[in-house]
Each structure stands twice: as structure tokens, then as C-alpha cells.
Amino acid sequence: MKIALIAHDKKKDDMVQFTIAYKHILEKHVLFATGTTGLRIQEATGLKIHRFQSGPLGGDQEIGALVAKNEMDAVFFFRDPLTAQPHEPDVSALIRLCDVYAIPLATNMGTAEILVKGLERGDFTWRNIIHEKN
Ligand SMILES: O=C(CO)COP(=O)(O)O
């Protein structure tokens, strides 16, 4: 599956801990990330990640483009709900596209735990049907 990993600055430590904890699951998938998040994860875990631009420079939109092509299978986006983001419209647009295409989206650690375990258990096989149709 193709998985996107994104975290706002105050959530990056959480994302790093999450990817360390679930490296054994994540390493079986094709990983994408916004620029700084991807760098932090790579440094901490050694996971292979395709890095897009940093979020404020268009990274969320690049990931959104893959969602719009129905190519992204899950998005882990640890948002910071307490800090204003200069690129808030991009953040909203990505979340909206996940809803348009029914892409599983975790915006906090609690949901992420459940989603990543579903990934391990094979709950994402329905995505293969979508890929076959495309
Ligand atoms: O801003 C972001 C998501 O909206 C994340 O971007 P970075 O991973 O480059 O910090």
C-alpha cells in the first residue's frame, strides 16, 4: 500500500515515536511524506521514504494530488489543532480529498494506532479492488 506520513511541527516527535514503534509494519509499504516530517522519520528509523516539498511549500498538495488519482491508500496526518498554520487551506484541502475518495485518514495518534494495526491485519485489501478498477 502507499502510505503518507505528515506531522505539524509540535506533533513531529509523536510521529517519530509512532514510526519507530511500527517500523516493522510500515517497512512493508511504500512510504511518502512531506519534507521535514520525512527527514525526521528517515533519520530516526532508516525507513525508505519518498519526500515531497515541506507542507507550507506545497507538500500537502503534492500528497493530495496522489489522493485525487486514488493512488494513496492511507494518510497519517498528525495535525496540530492548537497552532495556526500559514497553509491552512492546503491542510483542509488534503483532509477534504481524503473524504472525497474515502481514503483512511488518521489525524491523531489514537486513530493512527488503530489504522496501522488494521494495515498489519490486512484490512486494506479492499484498496486492491480500487487499484484494479483504475
Ligand atoms: O506542514 C506540514 C503539513 O501541513 C508538514 O510539513 P513538513 O513535514 O515539511 O514540516
TrEMBL record:
Molecular function as annotated in GO: methylglyoxal synthase activity
Domain MGS-like residue range list: 1-134
Reaction catalyzed: dihydroxyacetone phosphate = methylglyoxal + phosphate
Top-level enzyme category: lyase
The protein's Enzyme Commission number: 4.2.3.3
Active-site residues, as the UniProt record annotates them: 60 (proton donor/acceptor)
Sequence positions that bind substrate: 8, 12, 34-37, 54-55, 87
InterPro entries registered for this protein in UniProt: Methylgl_synth (IPR004363), Methylglyoxal_synth_AS (IPR018148), MGS-like_dom (IPR011607), MGS-like_dom_sf (IPR036914)
SMART domains according to UniProt: MGS
Gene3D superfamilies for the chain: Methylglyoxal synthase-like domain (3.40.50.1380)
Keywords assigned: Lyase
Functional summary from the UniProt entry: Catalyzes the formation of methylglyoxal from dihydroxyacetone phosphate.
Family: Belongs to the methylglyoxal synthase family.
UniProt-recorded name of the protein: Methylglyoxal synthase
Provenance organism: Aeribacillus composti
